[in-house]
# Entry
Amino acid sequence: MNGAAREPSSPLGLHRVVEPAGVLPQAARRLDPDAPLHEDEVRVDVEHLNLDAASYRQLHEAHGGDGEAVREAVCRIVRERGKMHNPVTGSGGMLIGTVAETGPRSPLGLKPGDRVASLVSLTLTPLTLTDGLRDWDGLSERAPARGHAVLFGRSIAAALPADLPDELSLAVLDVCGAPALTARTVADHTARTGVTPTVAVLGAAGKSGSLALAAARRAGARRLVGVVPDAAEEAALTRSDLADTVVRADARDAVALGERLADCGGPVDITVVCTDVPGCEHAAILATRDGGTVIFFSMATSFPAAALGAEGLRADVTMLIGNGYQPGHAQQALDLVRTNPGVRGLFDRRLRREDTSVGAPAVSRSAESRSALDSVAHRPATPTGKLGLDPQLVSRARELAVRAGRPVVDLARSHTTVAVERAALRLAGLSGADAEGIPWANRLVDAVRDQVGLEHGVALPVWHALRTGAGRDLTDLAARATARDVSFRLPEGAEATAAVRTAHRAMAGGLSVIDTRRRERERLVSRWGGARGPLVYLIVATGDIYEDIRQAAAAARGGADVIAVIRSTGQSLLDYVPHGATREGYAGTYATQENFRLMRAALDEVSAELGRYIRLTNYASGLCMPEIAVLAGFERLDMMLNDSMYGILFRDINPVRTFVDQRFSRQLHARAGIVINTGEDNYLTTADAVQAAHTVTASQLLNEYFGKEAGLSDAQLGLGHAFEIDPDLPDSFRMELSHALLARELFPDAPLKWMPPTRHMTGDVFRGYLLNGFFNLAGALTRQDILLVGMMTEAVVTPFLSDRDLALQNVRYVREAAGALEEDFRPAPGGMIARRADHVLREAVDLLERICDRGLLDAIAAGTFGGMRRPVDGGRGRDGVAERAPGYRNPATELLEKSADFDCEGEGEDQP
# Structure
């Protein structure tokens, strides 16, 4: 606790009352939020305020919808009163934030760092704002805010749940008293009369109204009536299936509402008022039979009007004031929104409507980016595709990805690495290794770096040395350099020009080999044909390349279209590429040029046998990413796992090193016609697949930008995602469909890589086989192009051949049974699948906004992706990065830069 703690305070907060003396904090005109913290208090750093509906409506109407005026009015109230207490409505709202400090005698059980929502009104919570609400446009109830608040000993706060978005949790907790009191009233009526009650809810499609309906149903109510004001809410409530009867009526018109209720069964036993408009008191009383109960949960209620109205109508009804507290009320409300799809759908609809109709930001962002996104939100848009995505929002997402990615591309353009320089030497023809197994490329680059550094590249000193007789060829030069028989220097003038010209010719020869292999692939695909429908992608990983070949051939005959040879565990951390054929490896087989050659030749044989081209995949990632990309091009691999984020997050490779290497390797893949596979699916093995879904979308958008900037076409972007939602969650399959279809509609021309469940595979092979069937079905319904075969023995054993056969049977059955079902699969407009996709996309946009504000490298350091924190100056391989000096030359990069729009049939030699 900072500073000196004062004596124990009043748990009621009396010590914070400035005026008038003798009243409780809620009744006070002014509180003191800035006095030192007492021993039983908690200070919370505020992130968002959530104004209650009645208060916000009053402010909005009083200021004619002027958001700036509303913002200033809220700031003025807080400044003058030391709390958010609307003097007209008498109401406030609630907040979320992070616990900053706790007194040693606080009974709330909170600790610094906990993210919490206050469950007591802002009308009694001492509050200071330090940012003038600058990130709030005043056009919605949710206000991003910075400041602090104080909780007393008898305050209530709830930890924010990890499985729900913050804005959803805030909306639920804001009204969590309504379902608790409704359920208790239903239970009390049943116990008192022996008959389960009928219940009507006014404002039934709203937050508290939908929760009240669900709570009444759970408590045993026999008939539920939902009253809504207009056709849109009538349709939404009907779709939710929360009410048995939906009545459209003005809840301020007591006579008309009474007549409508008479038409559908007459007055009810319990009426719950959840509207945010005044004047509903008499309608609620007339809607309730004698002996019944009216619960007023609206802050717009006039209690004199209610009391005098009941008396004047001679209505024998019990009237309850909605109490926002009951033990366990927060968890009860959160459980309802988790388990009841109707409730969740109405909340999502409301939150989406707030975002799109008024453009209120869900998170803090700069004024520039906020105004741009708000203008997008206000422009009319025609929803597109099966999900009805807002095309302006999609465009905004891509614009943000470019803004976030461009500084990283600039960084890659201004740096080189040992792996980029080694890859250039391999393009020029350097191969092989010394007696110790260390590749000659490593030996030569290390020698150059030791003598003259890498800032100017290796081409100048290496080819100058060759031209001056230091070695017969690159291999001989490398051997002599290893023996310290060569002195390298940086040539200048005509000598530099000659060195670059010679290096250029050698590296162009390597690219010519890659071009030839690309044309060879095109001829073979034309001769043998390819797969019908999605490419079935199957993994082999024995460690022995010759056993891999046997298993790969069997898999191809069983129906696999793509064979992926998993790389030996840990190879990504080797700063050299092993040489030759290998027969041992842990949980995989080493990626070497000879292993590539052997597997490619074997798959060509089985392709000719089957009359179907079988594709080969490996890994261009880790510390040798650019070199493996060269070798893949030389040996006609068809796909490569290529994603810098995987190496950064899961192998702790330095971010700068990896982004520089990634750009060069993707330029090579573009030239070779290789399809890259990105690794977003890996995020969901360490982060929750529901909560982190938007990080996958944001990363896909970034990878799209990085790929296209490097010259890859849409057809080469195998963007990754995965079927990793906990299957025990309600509607898990619907959410999987939503996420998969969102990826398909965002990237309609990309061959998406669809990964099977791994995280929630328990060892129960029967359950696993069923999950994989659902995974295959989701792929068929959403047109996933690269379908990795899921193994029911995942997390049990390395799959046997028989396991692969069964897994392929699963794929074949679903694919053939589904046929063209994708054509008929159209989620309901505004339904759960479409809402979820819209929500994930909006979260991705908000995340990209934050990344633009702070920078992608800082976002990675903060653990934004996969929950892994990787600082820019940390990780393996940092010492292999060099900033390019003026005069840096690398003919390989120069050639690749010129081939962004490469036509493999027509390349002319370029002069330096």
User: Anything to note?
Assistant: The chain has a mean pLDDT of 88. The CA atoms of residues 415 and 883 lie 4 Å apart. Residues 493-528 form the longest helix (36 residues). The radius of gyration is 33 Å.
